[in-house]
């Protein structure tokens, strides 16, 4: 039996911008991606702390070290610059493997930087 478990989490990161005209996705600073073990085009769930919105999109690489967290396309209507969001991805794995799995969790500072 396979179950879904938390794989990656960026906890309380600040939205730095939105672009309604872009084709979609969330641009995330590559340092944050690395810390959370996220890859480009991976599906992520976004939980907006400020307004309660919950939605899905996919990751694109943002400039390394820039702190960028930008929602694009339709997702840009779900957030505002300055909102705090939680970004998570899940993985499907065998039940026994899941018991031992440790997710990658990042707690960025107020500038979206990791220590």
Describe the 3D structure.
This protein is mostly beta strands and 115 residues long. It is built from two helices and eight strands. An eight-stranded mixed beta sheet has the order 2-6-3-5-4-7-1-8. The mean pLDDT is 97.
Which value, in Å, is the CA radius of gyration? 14 Å
Order of strands side by side in the largest beta sheet? 2-6-3-5-4-7-1-8
Q: At CATH's second level, what is the architecture?
A: Beta Barrel
At CATH level 3, the topology is Barwin-like endoglucanases
User: Beta-sheet strand percentage?
Assistant: over 45%
Specify the helix fraction band.
10-25%
**How many distinct helices?**
2
Offer a few descriptive terms.
115 residues, Barwin-like endoglucanases, 8-stranded mixed β-sheet
Write a brief structural summary.
The chain is mainly beta and 115 residues long. The chain has two helices and eight strands. The chain has a single domain (2-106), classed as Barwin-like endoglucanases, CATH 2.40.40.20.
